[in-house]
Amino acid sequence: MLNVLLETVDASRSVALPIRTDYPYGTLLETHSHRRAQFLYGTTGLMEVTTEEGAWVVPPYTGVWIPAGKPHGVRMNGVSTRSVFVLPEAVPRKSAACEVLLVSQLLHQLLLASADVPADYAPDSRDGALMTLILHELGRAPTLPLFAPIPPDAQLAALCVSLLAQPDVGVSPEDCARRLNKSPRTFARWFRQQTGMSFAAWRQQAILMSALSRLSAGAPVTEVALELGYDSPSAFSSMFRKALGTPPSAFLQPPGAWPVIPPRTAPAAR
Question: Which strands sit side by side in the sheet containing 147-149, from one edge to the other?
Fold first, then answer.
């Protein structure tokens, strides 16, 4: 189904509804939710997803799993999406938080093929088999660590939002402690209590998300590295490879050249 509004087909008894939507660059979908869970996959461009828990960045050939009823907003940067909306009782993933999932070449092809599946397909038809296989593949897809939780404390949340807007590897926990009039030890303990992560781990998530946004827009690796505060492109590339299992120059490649990325578990949201 192409450019179909979910509300026009949501009443269907089909377990999973595939919808393809093409968005102009910079389209912002304000915070909303669905009664069905959603797998949102962009075949082009990059998506930035926000919830009350934090922020995700979703580069090409990955997708975001959004649980049923989860309020979320999305900014589409040159994205053509393949969404699958799944009835809550049939979801293949049990996480209560959003997850960025690595899309295999098989799942990629299945999602492309699903664009021609109507809303009221027969469960025992080829279309039904296709959608069932998509759900199986979604259930086994590995997660990628591309999440930065937003703490519940308003003061610390404001700091984190500002760092997400302009991440810099040179920003230290001591700098942040001074900004919030706390000792470094108190700040470190407080930050972990609020986010479930150390400040260094959280800062790396913010840097990775910003890096992927810039790389997908065509910025060269050297420029991205320097803008994020690294002394050299090699230091940035080393961090990127260690975190995602592949260098920044190879991460955003077409499906036939996808790097092999080991399964990882994203930091738990609080």
Answer: 27-32, 72-77, 46-51, 54-58, 147-149
Locus of tokens 């996959």: 41
Put simply, whether the predicted model's pTM sits higher than 0.85 gets the answer: no
Give CA 267 to chain center in angstroms.
12
pLDDT attached to residue 270:
36
22 C-beta neighbours (distance < 10 Å), count: 14
Helices of type H across 23-125: 105-113
CATH number of residue 86's parent domain? 2.60.120.810
Task: Note the maximum CA span of the chain.
Answer: 64
Choose the final residue of a domain: 140, 165, 185.
140
Burial class (CB in 10 A: 0-12, 13-18, 19+), 4: middle
**Domain span at 212:** 150-252
How far apart CA 97 and CA 68 sit, in angstroms, is 10
Q: Is residue 269 in some structural domain?
A: no
